[in-house]
## 1
Amino acid sequence: MFTAEFKNNNTYLTLSDPFSLSQTLDCGQAFRFEELANGRWGGIACDRYLELEITADGQVVLYNVNETEFENVWRDFFDLDRDYSKIIEEISTNEVLKNASEYGKGIRVLNQPPWETLCSFIISQNNNIKRIKGIISRLCETYGEKTQGGYTFPSAEKLAPLTPEDLAPLRAGFRAKYIIDAARKVANGEVNLEVLKDLPYLDARAELLKIKGVGPKVADCALLFSHRHIDAFPKDVWIKRALTVLFGGELPKEAVPYAGIVQQYIFFFARETKLNIE
DNA sequence: TCCCAGGCTCTCT
DNA sequence: AGAGAGCATGGG
């Protein structure tokens, strides 16, 4: 699915799948990457700063990433061992899915750190992406560790001793108490995030639902964007709208084996086109 | 001013 | 078990 070359302390990738940094990093699954003035994308993930770009000839460049770091961190983060072209081909027997995946074919579903993802999607509830980013940014600046390019995402252990009042500067609103409940349960082992990727989907979901402020949608986002559960299908307002408008209420059978991936295509398509509801 | 945002909890039938 | 209000905050 890709070949990698390591030189000048950078990693150079050639992918067989179509790949878009804006679609992947700014489609609402990650909240801490942004496009830089020089056209590269930069952000902090997995406790380190990453800067990358796609060159004119389609090569992906990860700057200041050596082979060890690529293998240990970014290969999995960018889900590089999954064949997206094959998935798109299979779902394209459905005309609407073909259209939607054509719009968002550059998306890859990331495998992000468990705590960061869970916490971020707790913050996302009944919220908009711009404000989600703001709250997460203030959370990291206030309680994360300083590193090159900004601040790391604070650990559950760091947040567990705090109270919701301590989070007032984040302006997270009613979500502050949920963040603290999640931090405490993760830090004290009541909820074990590390095993979720190896549990059956429903068992993993039940584990996350033990946290106050985590319902089906937030749990599914965590399972999909962090724990490799592409059988999770987060239903937000956009997806519910799209299912009704595009598919008469139910996901086409072609999509079921790849529900989570397809969810991203539909989400992207729905937001781009606004489903032609004006 | 009201409505909405990658929803969930709580209460009331 | 299903419906509906309330929830913090900020942008349109």
## 2
Amino acid sequence: MQLTYYSEHSKVWLSVDVIIFGFEENKLKVLIGRRQMDPGRGEWSLYGGFVNEDESLDEAAERTLQQLTGLKRLYMQQIGAFGSVDRDPGERVVSVAYYALINVKDYSEKLQHKYGLEWMSLDALPHLYSDHNKMVQQAIRMMRQKIKNEPISFQLLPPLFTLTQLQHVFEAVLNNELDKRNFRKRIKEMDYIEKTDLIDKESSKRGACLYRFNKKAYNEESNFKL
Amino acid sequence: MQLTYYSEHSKVWLSVDVIIFGFEENKLKVLIGRRQMDPGRGEWSLYGGFVNEDESLDEAAERTLQQLTGLKRLYMQQIGAFGSVDRDPGERVVSVAYYALINVKDYSEKLQHKYGLEWMSLDALPHLYSDHNKMVQQAIRMMRQKIKNEPISFQLLPPLFTLTQLQHVFEAVLNNELDKRNFRKRIKEMDYIEKTDLIDKESSKRGACLYRFNKKAYNEESNFKL
DNA sequence: TCAAAAGTGTTAGATTTACACCCATGA
DNA sequence: TCATGGGTGTAAATCTAACACTTTTGA
């Protein structure tokens, strides 16, 4: 139903920007760095890249993320397209934003230093380049919605985690405190959160049971619901 | 934080596609038409258009929608960007999809005939051009989420409506039946749905009270919540 | 021995669901 | 007079929220 032809129209540059969320010191953090090019050199900014001719938007985001973190197959969600005419002070660039969740411990310090990136606490986020603050706002809103319905909290933790850690993730994402007993009750009902025999002795003297996410159980459970 | 320069990268065509939802015969319907250009001439398709250099994505969607319906300031939401490499069989075109809600009665038949459009029931939607079915799926999912938290149902109705009409909108969007008494109880709690003195005699012999959406009351109420 | 985190159930309140009959009117 | 859609309340069930003490162990 487009009524006019390609050639009558102009093309635009298209980029992806990735909001990388991590969880550290019981806080939700975002990976940002100083822009190393004009316009906006030196400003705090999300990490992004241009979309190539031969890759989809998702692939471009995936590539950008991998380049930055060295990690593959991370949890990633599109946030939406940002397209004010003058959002980029240089040229017209429309950007599609994504958010990704990573386990901070998997992230190589080498890469962090190479790109000069920092984990910034969400509640003390500085002014970011262009409309990047808006993107982060939108990302956190979508993530809050998501975490209530889908098991994404694990993505911010190591494969084995304690229930207290898991609770802290929820608290950081939702930005409010939860009742420990009610939280554990809810988790127990989720068969895809599996207790292991292992004990974590790092965070407490007594030791805490380690749990893991059982993806297979999750898929079966959610298929069953349909 | 983009590490490379504009000029090293290629540009792409960018379009917007609009999913226009209407409510008719107690069903949620989508406005679609037959593509009038190659590639895909004759296939059922959403209506879309290219994004111009001097307009934002939202403006492009607004313009497209207005061109098609003659209506301004409709409720509209972005769904997201669709960017598979070969989603358009002709050239590489990335498209940002939006959905809009309109009151079918406001929509001019002249324009409908001019563009050869039809209201198609959502549960009998034919195969659409390119990835347009996916867009519609995504749109309905987002709309279901939205209608639970924000007063958007009105947008599909005339300014004055009966509670039964409103209930039918919810039922059509959520795709399940609701209990009449429970529904009315919930509506009564929303102070921004205002009873008027007017009576609708069209849909029943007895007549039904007409209600309207009070935007001011809504804004006050939602400010109060913060 | 004590500080620090882990683990564990019950009860009250709020919310949600199910359900059936009378009313007013035009045909 | 009767068929049609409009309008109304209550009780049971479910879900949510609040709340405090015992356990283990390393320092």
